[in-house]
Amino acid sequence: MSERCPADPEIVEDLPIPLAVAGHHQPAPFYLTADMFGGLPVQLAGGELSALVGKPVAAPHTHPVDELYLLVSPNKGGARIEVQLDGRRHELVSPAVMRIPAGSEHCFLTLEAEVGSYCFGVLLGDRL
């Protein structure tokens, strides 16, 4: 019986990868993209929020796939964002996750964020 060798791991270190996203004021920082590892059905963008309080990073926009906003901070309640979703306002307090349905107009504004707070957009599909 021959011995099976494990495959070499695939590693991507030059992160984040800035990608243009409709509605965003500048390229969004991506940590997972659809073209990594032979093609992924999920993408991950986002970043640290403490320097973004009161500064919108995107105008209202849509995506052809569902998106999850994942809000985390070092301490419970250490970050708050206001999400506009199809004209309705929602406030998230960390830790929290919110589903943005495909085709829904959305954006968010950071209201409060201690250092080490992040909001990630998890795009459930390979399209932006």
TrEMBL record:
Question: What domain of life does the native source organism fall in?
Answer: Bacteria
Matching entries from InterPro entries are given as:
RmlC-like_jellyroll, RmlC_Cupin_sf
Record-given protein name: Cupin domain-containing protein
Query: Per the UniProt entry, what species is this protein from, by scientific name?
Result: Streptomyces phaeoluteigriseus
Recite the lineage of the species. Answer: Bacteria, Bacillati, Actinomycetota, Actinomycetes, Kitasatosporales
